[in-house]
Design a protein that fits this description.
single chain; 2 domains; ten-stranded mixed beta sheet; four-stranded antiparallel beta sheet; 16 helices; 46% helix
Length: 441
């Protein structure tokens, strides 16, 4: 899918001019260096290894990763990662999302991890049972600590529609387990006719589906909260060496930086089974997400991040270069607003053990950073609304739903930040055309 034309200067000049007009400080020499590096990797092997730091990943992804915070991410990895079991469970833990783009993400969002988990057993059924065991063990061993709290675990799919304490659940939708349900090993509720119903953890293991764990992690020194997640790609290795993804699809490796060189053998074994159409499928899935974030669930910051990955993998390097610079801009500290909003939601719940002072510390740090790096009427209004939200939250009761006033302040902040990113995107003609096409699908 990659274009044979790497550097059409006329199109690049138009994008640079758009960047200037939009107030994005695009470093032309740095953009040129990145384009040159992209061109230099064409024709090489897909995966490259950084021997010094003991990391590896896709050739284009590695161009965006900085090892400066590697020790920090490896520390969180000790919390979210799974352990190997000799001859039974093999794992390869990687960073994904903005954490894997730390060279260009001046203000990264969540700490997203991705882990390949290969289970070697005689039968698929036994592989599912082992997965159920290791996931529950991981969840129970990381429920709460001085600096972390488990939020939920995605495991299994509802075999029938039912009403639970979390709301109405559709048949075949992913099951989101909260800590109390994981401890009990079951989710209870009612069927449409009012009769009682339940799903057990063991029953969920029969169809594991989408497997993901989410935590809130607090840094007591920097008074910072971060959403840490680990999405699992689980495979069963049969006695004859056949590799079978338990969710029916083996994920590609276009956006991961693997943290330990010791996991190269397991990665290499699994990578050989990635479908030949994986790049097309990956881009199609990203475009579905872009469509969602520009239509039904507006979030133009998330849309921009996914568009960057689409553009850099499909040969639209000039547009990718612009978005690369955009996320290296001081103004994109505003992307952290979504992380703050999410941690507000996670902290104001009945089972939260994260001190509210930590949440307020994160809010104060974000406000001060925005004040330091931004200027102009739009940015001033965002600061004003952040201060208003911070003030309202200080009067909220922990363990209860946010008040209508807090919800309104939260919505206003989200709307302002959305408008900010929207203007930075549609101001580039080529990107506006792309967005219009995606929205129309």
């Amino acid at each position: 899918m990659e274009s044979n034309v790497i550097n059409p200067s006329e199109e690049m000049n138009r994008i640079v001019e758009s960047a200037r007009r939009l107030g994005v400080e695009m470093d032309e020499s740095e953009a040129a260096q990145w384009l040159t590096a992209i061109a230099a990797t064409k024709g090489e092997v897909d995966v490259v290894v950084d021997v010094r730091d003991g990391i590896f990943g896709h050739r284009i992804t590695m161009l965006d990763f900085s090892p400066d915070r590697l020790a920090y991410f490896r520390k969180i990895g000790q919390l979210v990662g799974f352990s190997d079991e000799a001859g039974v469970v093999e794992t390869a833990l990687a960073l994904s999302g903005s954490a894997a783009q730390s060279r260009i993400q001046t203000y990264p969002g969540d700490a997203d991890f991705f882990e390949r988990v290969n289970i070697i057993t005689p039968t698929r059924e036994e592989a599912c049972r082992i997965l159920a065991r290791v996931m529950r063990d991981k969840a129970l061993s990381s429920l709460k600590g001085a600096t972390y709290q488990l939020i939920e675990v995605k495991f299994g799919s509802y075999p029938f529609a039912m009403e639970t304490s979390s709301g109405s659940q559709k048949k075949d939708s992913p099951i989101a387990w909260v800590p109390a349900e994981i401890e009990n090993g079951r989710i209870t509720g009612k069927l449409a006719d009012g009769s009682p119903a339940e799903i057990t953890w063991d029953q969920a293991s029969e169809n594991p589906g989408w497997c993901k764990l989410d935590w809130v992690v607090a840094d007591p020194i920097d008074q910072q909260l971060v959403n840490a997640s680990n999405m699992l790609d689980v495979t069963w290795e049969a006695p004859d060496g056949t590799i079978v993804p338990l969710d029916g699809y083996l994920d590609p490796y276009f956006q991961e930086v693997y943290l330990e060189s010791e996991s190269i053998p397991i990665f290499s074994k699994l990578a050989k089974h990635v479908d030949s159409n994986a790049l097309d499928d990956y881009v199609a899935s990203l475009e579905k997400e872009v469509h969602k974030y520009v239509t039904t669930s507006p979030n133009y910051g998330k849309a921009a991040k996914r568009m960057y990955n689409i553009f850099r993998l499909t040969g639209r390097y000039q547009e990718a270069a612009y978005l690369r610079e955009l996320f290296d801009e001081p103004t994109t500290v505003l992307y952290q607003v979504w992380s703050l909003i999410r941690t507000i939601d996670d902290t104001f719940n009945s089972s939260s053990s994260i001190p509210l002072d930590t949440l307020f510390g994160q809010a104060d740090t974000l406000i001060m950073t925005v004040v330091d790096v931004l200027e102009g009427e739009q940015e001033t209004e965002i600061v004003r609304q952040l201060l208003r939200l911070r003030n309202i939250l200080s009067r909220e009761a922990p363990g209860q739903e946010l008040s209508p006033q807090a919800e309104a302040a939260r919505a206003e902040v989200i709307n302002l930040v959305n408008n900010f990113f929207y203007e930075k995107l549609v101001g580039v003609p080529a990107i506006k055309v792309y967005l219009d096409d995606i929205a129309a699908k």
